[in-house]
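Supplementary notes (optional reading)

For those who missed the lab, this is the record we used. Protein: tRNA (guanine-N(7)-)-methyltransferase. Length: 276 residues.
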Amino acid sequence: MENNNKIEIIGKNGQKIKITEAEQERRNKIKKVNDELKKINAEKSKIINEKEIWKYFFEKPKKNYNKYMYEMLEFPEYLMYNNKDVDEYCGKWNEFFQNNNDIYLEIGCGSGNFTVKNAQKFKDRNYIALELRFKRLVLGAKKSKKRNLSNILFIRKRAETILDFIGENEIAGVYINFPDPWEGEEKKRVINESLFARLDIIMKSGGVLFFKTDHEQYYEDVLELVDRLANYETVYHTRDLHNSEKSDENIKTEFEEMFLSKHSMNIKYIEIKKVK
């Protein structure tokens, strides 16, 4: 039977409040857990400082860090965050994967579901996935390690820096799934003329950019943009991917699965081929 006897304690703001002994016990348990977590995180932060991992992300060391920064150390074969190490593989990614298979790039991979499923399905392809958030990088690396994949790598890099670490004609295809449409600030979109200028350099002739979005205007704008480009052509597009001939081969992203479970809006899809 729950103990409902009241006791008086001092609250966070110094005021006196009365709570039950059961509530006090519950609070003590929560405090104990939080104290343990603080201790663990402090130890991890100490390791980050000792190994100077912080210098890859910040100008000076801190007392506390995102806990997933520490976990990144556990997946050196699946995850790169050191810009120098990443850039040194520019033009040599087949050496990293130790084969001559085609390399595909995903920009903004989230927690890796899409890229991991691709890597499982197409063992004769290599995959490089870009993401900035520590947690998502770690989750993607964990999924890859669990499946013992050898054809996938997660990199903490921005899309606009791809020329720093991807060589000429090194990429066979690029995936961009559900990027921010930047309504009212369309110049910030990841798919723009500047992106295609970079793809002119890194993507092989005949390579394909695969684009998915739930945003009608973004879909229309990309189609119009490609029509103006001399080196690219739209080889396939649909306003309803999941009711198209491409439905069976479609691999859903985390966002896509969540979106479909909550909304009825169609997913738009475009394939853009580099023709020169």
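If you only remember one thing from this example: Residues 187 and 232 are 20 Å apart (CA to CA).
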